Amino acid sequence: MFSLEGRTALVTGTRTGIGRAIAVGLARAGADVVLHGHRDDLDEVEAEVRKAGREAWRWVYDLSDVTRLPGAAEELLGRHRVDILVNNAGIIRRAPAARHSYADWRAVLDVDLDAVFLLSQAAGRPMLRRGSGKIIMIASMLSFQGGVNVAGYTVAKHAVAGLTRSLACEWAARGVQVNAIAPGYIATDNTAPLRDDPGRESAIRDRIPAGRWGTPGDLAGAAVFLASPASDYVNGHVLAVDGGWLAR
Fold first, then answer.
1. Per-residue exposure over 74-94, b if at least 16 CB sit within 10 Å of its own CB, e if not
2. Which of 96, 120, 143, 180 has the smallest CB count inside 10 Å?
3. Mean pLDDT across the stretch 69-96?
């Protein structure tokens, strides 16, 4: 029930971190993978997917260009049937709310929310026609909490949780499952400023019941579950993979 044989996944933001780990995890479960990046430096992740014995294709597109995104997505979907969409790509801008520029606010919302909606809409239409499909959003602990110095990112991730539930309400009866993964504090490029601050790093780690920061690989199993037939009756759920952060 966890096999992805015969399915094709589109994963955004696959060069490093969570996106790369999810793309490789889906490949190891049997899926062919369309690897997205905003620049064409996907050699390493493509090699990992092919090492798993699966096909890999590249889609190079800057998701901040939301005006052109619907057309670019339609062109891609004309070449590849996408059974699984993982909306992973995201950016973050750190600044106190009183100094958070509108340009940074807009940049974060363009990539972390608007592009997520537009890609889900584009991939969702053929899924709805077929009566099957899986869409996985990447939410955040900041889908539940306020955060510090990341107002735009927090708003976007709250909205991603809401979008997950909204699409599930519309699409579940038509065979398309829409769910989200909310990673805890994962050691990635996005969290490097936190890990480089000894006070913040220790304060965060001390609150995690698991006693450690997560790794990108900790998300792969959850993604395989939500992409597979094992989750066919899971709809509109935000699955926290957080080492117990929200439990404390």
1. eebbeeeebbbbbbbbbbbbb
2. 96
3. 98
- Please list, in sequence order, all residues whose beta carbon lies within 8 angstroms of the beta carbon of residue 114, skipping any fewer than 6 positions away: 66
Report the Cα–Cα distance between both ends of the chain, in Å, rounded: 33
Looking at this protein, which amino acid is placed at residue 227? A
Helices 43-51 and 17-28: crossing angle, nearest 10°? 20
pLDDT confidence tier of residue 189, bands split at 50, 70 and 90: confident
- Rounded-to-integer distance, Cα 18 and Cα 183, Å: 9
Q: What is the pLDDT of residue 201?
A: 94
pLDDT tens-digit readout, 104-115: 999 999 999 999
The answer to whether residues 208 and 200 touch, using CB atoms and an 8 Å cutoff, is: no
pTM of the model: 0.96
Mean pLDDT of the chain: 97
Catalytic positions: 153
Domains recognised in the chain with CATH numbers: 8-184+216-247 (3.40.50.720)
Q: Cβ neighbours of residue 177 under 8 Å, at least 6 residues apart?
A: 133, 134, 135, 168, 171, 226, 231, 232, 234, 235
For residue 190, the model assigns a pLDDT of 82
Q: Are 14 and 38 in contact (CB under 8 A)?
A: no
